[in-house]
UniProtKB/TrEMBL annotation:
Belongs to the NOSIP family. One of its GO terms (cellular component) is nucleus. One of its GO terms (molecular function) is ubiquitin protein ligase activity. This is Nitric oxide synthase-interacting protein homolog. InterPro entries: NOSIP, Znf-NOSIP, Znf_RING/FYVE/PHD. Residues 71-98 form a coiled coil. It is found in: Nucleus. It comes from the Eukaryota. CDD domains: RING-Ubox1_NOSIP, RING-Ubox2_NOSIP. Keywords: Coiled coil, Nucleus. It comes from Acromyrmex echinatior (Panamanian leafcutter ant).
């Protein structure tokens, strides 16, 4: 028996460290890991491509996109809307055709019921016939003409328009056991992929970053850590520096410059133009590694779970 001391090993306690170690080795359970600063995009990178922007534009909410990427996204959503609208209209036409076919079948059944009630007498030329609706006769006449024009003797599944109705058993949605899904009319509105709010091309605001002019640094702009600066205070911009965009000129400045200089008299120091509070758009910050700045900084890997 082990001794009862500070480092006692006789206790039946399953420690947290042992539990995490066994869970990682078993292959079950959900693994979570905190995302570091290097795993989050920089402040000057596009929210879609996660690469530095060539032609940066921002939305009303301050989300930064590359103009080429966001226009391609909008075009893709418009094509998707057109495709869904065609499928919806095709379904509506199919429903209308099925309603017409059901009306014709009901008309034929009514005609057969009425024709069975006809009573004829062989005595003389007297015949008692019930009156038949003229609309029923007209529909039956049209159906007979259509059936006479088609080649009814063929048993091929490629004639009489049957080639467009062939089942595609290799497509999951075309298998016989799948129930038909009623499509809803698609929404024409395009939403921002980050904020989820309505997005229009005319609402995209072009911006410009002021490049740091360092004659001694001959490296490429992408390699540099200090790439851009505030055009007013010349402070270096980064993920940990809150920034804002002046809507009228598109310049990116620091929030400290906005609070201490611009908000005093609401005049743009770059061109002495008059500004309003709506002309200042806060730029969404990049990754700093701190939960106060970024909402989601935890990566999750969901694996199978053993339930008792």
């Amino acid at each position: 028996m082990t001794r009862h001391a500070r480092n006692c090993t006789a206790g039946a306690v399953y420690t947290y460290h042992e539990k995490k170690k066994d869970a990682a080795a078993s292959g079950y359970g959900t693994n979570t890991q905190r995302v570091g600063k290097d795993s989050v995009k920089d402040f000057d990178c596009c929210c879609l491509t996660l690469q530095p922007c060539r032609n940066p534009v921002i939305t009303k909410d301050g989300y930064l996109f590359d103009k080429e990427a966001i226009l391609e996204y909008i075009l893709t959503k418009k094509k998707e809307y057109t495709r869904k609208l065609k499928e919806y209209e095709k379904q509506k036409q199919k429903e209308e055709v099925s309603l017409q076919m059901s009306f014709k079948s009901n008309t034929q059944i009514a005609f057969q019921e009425r024709s069975s009630s006809i009573v004829a007498y062989s005595m003389g030329a007297f015949h008692l016939v019930t009156q038949i609706d003229t609309n029923v006769l007209f529909l039956l006449l049209i159906e007979c003409q259509e059936s006479s024009t088609l080649d009814g003797n063929s048993v091929s599944n490629m004639k009489n328009g049957k080639d467009k109705m062939l089942p595609s058993f290799w497509i999951p949605s075309k298998t016989p056991g799948v129930k038909e899904i009623s499509l809803q009319k698609p929404d024409k509105t395009i939403y921002c992929p980050i904020s989820g709010k309505q997005l229009k091309v005319k609402d995209l605001i072009p911006i410009k970053f002021t490049v740091v002019q360092d004659p001694d640094d001959k490296r490429s702009l992408i390699v540099k850590q200090a790439r851009y600066m505030c055009p007013i205070t010349h402070d270096i911009l980064g993920n940990s520096v809150p920034c804002a965009v002046i809507k009228t000129t598109g310049d990116v400045v620091t929030m400290e410059c906005v609070e201490k200089l611009i908000k005093k008299d609401w005049i743009n120091p770059l061109d002495n133009s008059k500004l309003t509070p709506s002309d200042i758009i806060p730029l969404q910050r990049g990754g700093t590694g701190y939960a106060f700045v970024n909402d989601s900084l935890e990566g999750r890997h969901e694996r199978p779970v053993l339930q008792a």
